[in-house]
Design goal:
The complex is a heterodimer of chains A (71) and B (158). Chain A has 71 residues and is mainly alpha-helical. Chain A is built from five helices and two strands. A two-stranded antiparallel sheet of chain A has the order 1-2. The mean pLDDT of chain A is 93. By secondary structure, chain B is mainly α. Helix content of chain B is 81%, strand content 0%. The longest helix of chain B is centred in the middle third of the chain and has 34 residues. Chain B starts with a helix and ends with a helix. Classes of the chains: A mainly alpha (71), B mainly alpha (158). Chains A and B meet through helix 3 of A and helix 2 and helix 4 of B.
């Protein structure tokens, strides 16, 4: 589908496992708008490395557990 | 309205900016170009009246829109995607502005080098005030295009 980045992510699953955290809650924790988080979740927008680390830190997992770059 | 509620504050601000720009542009430029086309000397009084009207309209619209938009929760911070879209919009607007300015410069050069050609053609034979307004129109167009492009990126999502 056009507009998707090559990087996939597990944010939706991680939110669900984190007590069904809402997009708004996660967005606030990492300091972005909910619209930006939606774009990241849908793999339409690749976050900066700094933001990627912030997301991983919220869920207390490694960067690799959140984002995947296909071989 | 449901769709509008899903917009970020930044996107809502851009929509309001675009609305204000369009209304002001439709108010100012047609009047100005009619004044110039009818060969009315752009007197200080007429110009002052038009500029004052434009400023009052801009302030009035700004107040109405901010009352309408900012009846909501806490303000959102600008994030990296906002900065990215702003930068992309600025790049496109800069190109448009550059092209417009190049056209105006070309016009001035033709006017200087071939005065006999320019004299017979109304579009080429422009006064300094008309050229100043063409430059103003270029700034306006580039600003509108920047806003439109930013809105396009927000709607597209990336």
């Amino acid at each position: 589908m056009g507009g998707k980045t090559a990087i996939t992510n597990n944010i939706r699953r991680l939110r669900f496992e984190a007590d069904e955290m809402t997009q708004a809650e996660l967005a606030e924790l990492i300091g972005v708008t909910r619209q930006t988080l939606i774009a990241i979740e849908q793999a339409k927008y690749s976050p900066t490395l700094e933001l990627a680390f912030k997301i991983a830190r919220v869920f207390d997992v490694s960067l690799d557990d959140v984002f995947k770059y296909p071989e | 309205m449901e769709l509008f509620n899903n917009f970020s504050t930044r996107e809502k601000n851009l929509w309001s900016e675009l609305l204000v720009d369009i209304v002001i542009g439709l108010y100012y430029f047609p009047k100005m170009f009619v004044m110039m086309a009818s060969n009315t000397e752009l007197s200080g009084g007429a110009m002052a009246e038009l500029i004052t009207g434009t400023v009052i309209l801009a302030i009035f619209m700004g107040i109405i829109i901010s009352v309408f938009l900012h009846t909501q929760k806490k303000p959102e911070q600008v994030d990296e995607r906002d900065h990215l879209f702003d930068a992309r919009g600025s790049r496109i607007a800069y190109t448009v502005l550059g092209l417009c300015v190049a056209l105006v410069i070309g016009h001035i050069i033709v006017n200087e080098m071939l005065p006999e050609v320019a004299r017979d053609r109304a579009l080429l034979n422009l006064s300094p005030v008309a050229i100043a307004h063409l430059l103003l129109l270029s700034l306006y167009l580039s600003s509108v295009i920047k806003t439109v492009m930013q809105l396009f990126f927000y709607r597209r999502g990336y």
